[in-house]
Specification:
- By secondary structure, the protein is mainly α.
- The protein has a single domain, classed as Tetracycline Repressor, domain 2, CATH 1.10.357.
- The chain is 74% helix and 0% strand.
- It contains 8 helices and no strands.
- Helix 1 crosses helix 2, helix 1 packs across helix 4 and helix 2 packs across helix 3.
- It is elongated and about 60 Å long.
- It comes from Olivibacter ginsenosidimutans.
């Protein structure tokens, strides 16, 4: 089992490098197998197709992002500073792995189940870390947020919604340009300040 897990991790890490450099459309399972000095049959044993491997890569990146954010948040007590740090880190990871946001994904008529699960996992992890920020604010008596997890979900959905306001090509709902990513991030920061000020106002009432 240990060797199986190590091999799976190695495949994901190798695939991440190739996807991040060439994008999903220009990457083949044959190339990944060659990078690993594996037979295609063995690679397909771990991942039945490229989409399932791509989903595993997204899941792994999301977990790495959350782990890095958690470390950074340890030294931040102010709720607003913590949320703005989270937004900055989201942008940093989006830029680092920008080629993973392959335009070919826009041509999908229906999102594969594996990809949908990976995206949902990333959202769930982000909701948890935002809820942790809100819980810490409650503990420090900076805020008095009822149902922190529910409020965190609303906030994340509002941040995600910023994408639709910024995208120049409304058909490309999944893939902003690098410039649009930056613009989205700036709008998310403004939203965060307004959102948190509203929560503080509730506390003062």
């Amino acid at each position: 089992m240990v060797n199986h897990d190590k091999k799976r991790t190695l495949i994901i890490e190798t695939a991440t490098k190739r996807f991040a450099h060439f994008g999903i459309a220009k990457t083949t399972m044959t190339e990944i197998a060659k990078d690993l000095s594996l037979s295609k049959a063995l690679l397909y044993y771990y991942f039945p197709d490229k989409i399932s491997l791509f989903a595993a890569v997204l899941e792994n990146i999301a977990k790495k992002m959350i782990a890095k954010i958690q470390v950074g948040l340890q030294g931040i007590d102010n709720c607003e500073d913590a949320v703005l740090y989270l937004i900055d880190m989201r942008l940093a990871f989006a830029m680092k792995y920008y080629n993973l946001f392959d335009p070919s994904l826009n041509s999908m008529t229906e999102m594969p189940a594996e990809l949908a699960r990976a995206i949902q996992l990333a959202a769930d992890l982000e909701i948890k870390i935002i809820a942790d920020i809100f819980n810490k604010a409650n503990k420090n008596e900076e805020m008095n947020i009822e149902e922190p997890t529910h409020i965190a979900e609303i906030f994340l959905n509002a941040m995600i919604g910023m994408r639709f306001c910024v995208l120049k090509d409304k058909k490309a709902m999944f893939i902003p340009t690098k410039e649009e990513f930056d613009e989205i991030s700036q709008m998310q920061k403004k939203l965060a300040v307004i959102f948190l000020n509203g929560l503080r106002h509730q506390k003062s009432e």
